[in-house]
Every structure is written in C-alpha cells, then in structure tokens.
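INFO  loader      accepted 1 record
INFO  loader      residues=327
INFO  predictor   begin
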Amino acid sequence: MDTTTSSRPGPRPGPRTSRPSGSVADEPAILVRDLRRTYGSGKQAFEAVRGVDLDVEAGTVSALLGTNGAGKTSTMELIEGLGRPSAGEVRVLGLDPVADRAAVRRRLGILLQRSGFSGDLSVLETLQMWHSTLSRPRPVADMLDALRLTGRADTRVVGLSGGEQRRLDLACTLMGDPDVVLLDEPTTGLDPESRRDVWSLIRGLRDGGTTVLLTTHYLDEAEALADELAIMHEGRIVRRGTVPQIVEGHPSVVRFTTPDRPLPDLLGTATTERGLTVVETDDLQRTLTALLTWADGHGVRLADLSARTATLESVFLAVADQEGSTR
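INFO  predictor   done
INFO  writer      dumping tokens
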C-alpha cells in the first residue's frame, strides 16, 4: 500500500460540531481530581504529585508550567496513561487512560521529550511506518508539508538537526488526527522560524476543535498559546487561570538608580541594594506619579528608571522563590 496518500483530508476544515463519542456531557476533555503519585515506600517514599486538580475544556489550549522538580512530568505521564496514580482520578474524554487505554489511545496524540525513532530510517520511512500503526491516519505527504519536512523526506533520522527531529516527532504525534494532544516541551531545540510554525500549528489544532495540553519552559510560549495556565510547585498547582487572573494581586515594580538624597515615603515597599532602588507597589500609577513629582520638585534625575506591571515571569519567579512554603 502506498501510505503517502489517503482519502482523509489533511487539516480539518473547521471546528467539530459534535462531542466525540465516549465523552461525558459537560465534562472537560481532561479531568484530574486529587491526583497523587508516590515513588518508593516507607521512609524512602517521595510524593511527586500531591493532590492536583485540573480541568482542560474541549477545544482549548492549556499550559502546565512548573519550577524544577514541581511534578509536571509525573502529572503528564498519569494523564497519558503511562502509569497508575497512587490516588485520585484521571479522565480523558470521559475515559480512564489506563483501564480504557485501547479506546483512549486511538484519540490521543502524545509528544514525549524524546521519541527514540530509529536513526537508520529516513524521514519518509519513519512516517510511513507510523502511518501503518494508526486507525485513522492523515496522509504522510500532508504531514511532511505541515512540518516543513518535504525537502528532508529521504534524509535518515540520524542526519537530522535537533529541530528537524522535533518536527518529525510532531508529525507522528498529529498524524493520527487526535481529539486530545499532549505536548511535552514541543519547541525545545527549534529555531525561531520552526518555533513560529509550531505555534501556528497548535493554534490551528485549537481552531479545529482539538484539545491541547502542553508543558513548556518558555513563558512567552505559554502566554502566546494558552487559554489557561497552571503553575506547579512542589507537587501542587499553586496558580491557575488566564494570564490576567494569575498576575492579579501581584505587585508592579519600579526600578531606578538610588539618588544621593533621602527618598520620600512611597506607596509601596522600597528596598535599596548596590545602588539600585526597587519599589514594589499595588498602585503603579500613583506610586510613579508621586516619585516623579518628588524628583521634579527637588531637581533629582532618576537614572535607569523603569516601571512594569506584574507579569507571568514575575509571578513564576515569586513561586520559585517560595521554597518549602507549600509543603
């Protein structure tokens, strides 16, 4: 059989108009409740996931962020059905990803951090091999085109760059036309152009009705793609929501070179170290106005002045600094 052609179209023409069979009405495409995973036993036991709750609505993109050792990889493995939880519940499209693995696997696309494809096969041979294992594959030619691999079709996998190997991984992940896609660090190793292509591909999946859950170390990627984000720390989700919801309540920051005279009382907490003053404030406009009015009235030049509202990065770093606070 020539696996480079198929009667199935490539990209979906538009959003799905009905819920896939097997889902529970009004249930999120991915539902996680009080999820726990413990490694080892007795005094050597380590709880990597500590009561995670997570909903990913159908047809949305969600991003799972985490500090080092936060437990996001363990959480993703449980959602993928690669292990059984120590406690709690996972449902994907209304099904248990372990007990109902055969049904779930046909509708799930998984991108692991490493694929392990044979280096001796060409790109085309790898996609043809993968095509033959799927129940509803997209055309091989379409996937080569979508991931900009057509010109590398005859190249052996061992001869691909890191970014090209990642694009091959993505082509295999999406070839089965999955209802739910789980992407573990999808743009690691990609050049800027390829990274933008993957972003466009993920947006296209959402527009076509596919549900996407991804992990990433790139905060700008999470902001650009995700409808909702969740930040994990020490096995728990400690922040969740849209970017505005996550940053709400976190202080804005004003920075400037410390002047050679005492500062006025400002609307915020000011710290000075190594000639730099940092003011954290819940009212950036009033604080900045008061500071500039004082400087103008006293003939003070505020060198290296910068002001910024709370960002996803500042919240993430604040979470990372809370070592031990959520135990």
